[in-house]
Amino acid sequence: MSAEIDVLVLGGAGVDTIVHVPELPLPFADSYPISPGIETRAGQTGDFLALGLHSLGLRVHHLDLLGDDDAGALVRALHAERGIALTTVPQPAGTKRAVNLVDPLGRRLSLYDATRSAPEDRLPDPLVRELATAARHAHVSITHPCAHALPTLRACGVTVSTDLHDWDGENPYHEPFAHAADVVFVSATRLPDPEPVMRRITERGRARVVVATAGAEGAFLLADGELHHVPTAAPPAPVVDSNGAGDAFAAAFLWAWLAGEPPLRAARFGAVAGAHACTVPATRHDPITRAQLLSQGGPGHA
Q1: 228-249: string of b/e by CB count within 10 Å (b at 16+)?
Q2: Which residues contact 96 (CB under 8 A, 6 or more apart)?
């Protein structure tokens, strides 16, 4: 029986408040006038990944805990507006929130509200099993309810990806995600030399592919034991905001990889999508489309 879902996205649903600041780090002061102002919108890492995959034509289903609050209503409305399936589990602590400080260069500092979760939070195993059985692939956010879902995903036989974000290569919290996934994304922000960490992931876990994104330096891809450097793609417009660039990279990579493209070509598509995301203000949802990705990503198709 063919899969009903191309990618099941677990976790990462929430709401961000975007605050534009004159510089980062922000020097202490009593007050700052800011422009273009403060705006709250739905969209954290799982939301952006789901939007990116959907924009590229994949069938996406998003699963996460969500509060019965105004923030949760924003997340539900975003998915309904875009036609992305969303299954929610009640979250008494409320929907995940963050404040993103964005400087004129497009750099971002995120402040996450740690009160919007509890140690006992779980995604119900029967629900995870039902959705995973209908899926080709699962992408797992690094929240602890998703960590508890990893064994079920493996038992269902789907391939798994995860994004470790700015892991330092040492924090043990990230290791279950790193070692259970077939495709691992990580930011090189806290990895002066990402190669040893990338190789350790493949040696200790299941990963066939590891990608370390490095901002203006491009990305590093480890596949079949060989390390490649993937240069940045030229952005199609002025860079305004790096928010969501990593999620855009991952979405385009997975789109190509699931279509059978080799990892290096998938990473080049990821670079194009990441560059596009940097031209989109953090207050907007405008992921790259398949037509745009193909036109900017070179000849051929995934």
Answers
A1: eebebbebeeeebbbbbbbbbb
A2: 13, 14, 15, 44, 71, 112, 113, 116, 117
Mean pLDDT of 209-228: 96
- 216 and 197 in contact (C-beta within 8 Å)? no
Residue in 269, 13, 258 with CA at minimum distance from that of residue 138? 258
148: burial class by Cβ within 10 Å (0-12, 13-18, 19+)?
middle
- The letter for the amino acid at 141 is S
Phi-psi region of 224 (alpha: psi -120 to 50; beta: other; left: phi over 0): left
Domain positions in the chain: 8-13+43-90+120-296
Angle between helix 144-156 and helix 125-133 axes, rounded to 10 deg: 50
- Segment 91-129, tens digit of pLDDT: 999 999 999 998 888 788 999 999 999 999 999 999 999
CATH for the 8-13+43-90+120-296 domain, from 3.40.1190.20, 3.40.190.80, 3.40.220.10, 3.40.630.40: 3.40.1190.20
- Of the listed ranges 5-19, 104-118, 222-236, the least confidently predicted one is 104-118
Q: In 3D, which of 42, 44, 265, 293 has the Cα closest to residue 165?
A: 44
Please state, in angstroms and rounded to a whole number, the distance separating the CA atoms of residues 226 and 71.
43
Q: Which residue has the tokens 């939007």?
A: 51
